[in-house]
Amino acid sequence: MLTESVATIRGSTCLHFLSAIDKGKTDQIVPRKGKVFAQGDDADSVFYLRNGRVRLAVISQTGKEATIGIAGIGDFFGEGSLAGQMQRVHSATAMTDCALLRIDKKIMAKALCRERRLCDLFVAFLLARNIRYEEDLVDQRFNSSEKRLARVLVLLAGGKEYEEPSEAVFPKISHEVLAEMVGTTRPRVSFFMNRFRKLGFIQYRDGLRVNSTLLSVVLGDPSCPSDSSRAPLS
Questions:
Q1: Which of 59, 168, 196, 208 has a CA positioned 20 to 30 A from the CA of residue 83?
Q2: Is residue 225 part of a domain?
């Protein structure tokens, strides 16, 4: 996830070009827990998130659900339609009240061809997200559940893996969703969240506040006041 300043700059620039689209574009307001689209729906458009947060999730044939990402302000999603995707391979659900731009895939493709700057921003966004997915895979393979959870919280707070979040506040996310993102169990997430709270890394106040000190867990700082005598639980 991009830092707030970068996301703001990119977002204002993208909106400048997207606002010039005079057809095939609609503004949508989706309430909290509302469905933007469901897995299996026709992939006929691209979405740009103007405000709020959207959860992207996949449901298996056995009914098991997995969160694959959370879109924030200035993010695109549903862009698989531009690559020939006929049906949505995941669902998108509003985590907060959201303001969206829905752009027909043909109109979006024309806009990307016409506006070089918009195309550059769109490609940069896709590359950054692809790198994030690769980092997620490495994180899943080599790091403990505690460190993976800390990294997810730092990223959700608008920081980068090696940069401090600015004590950002975002809507509370259920421990079930965090467990899906981290790749562990809900009880384990609850245990670490309680520990982070007691250590002052996070606070529950008008949402979930992530303090910059949580980065010490991500970086494995030996001076971190975490209980280093306890063996990792993963």
A1: 59
A2: no
Average pLDDT, rounded, for the chain: 83
Domain end (from 108, 132, 156): 132
| DSSP per-residue string spanning the chain | ---HHHHHHHHHHHHHHHTT--SSEEEEEE-TT-EEE-TTSB--EEEEEEES-EEEEEE-TTS-EEEEEEE-TT-EE-GGGGGT--B-SSEEEESS-EEEEEEEHHHHHHHHHH-HHHHHHHHHHHHHHHHHHHHHHHHHHHS-HHHHHHHHHHHHTT--TTS---S-EE----HHHHHHHHTS-HHHHHHHHHHHHHTTSEEESSSEEE-GGGHHHHHT-TT--S-TTSPP--
Residue 224 domain-assigned (yes or no) = no
Give the domain range for residue 213. Answer: 143-219
User: 9 and 116 in one domain?
Assistant: yes
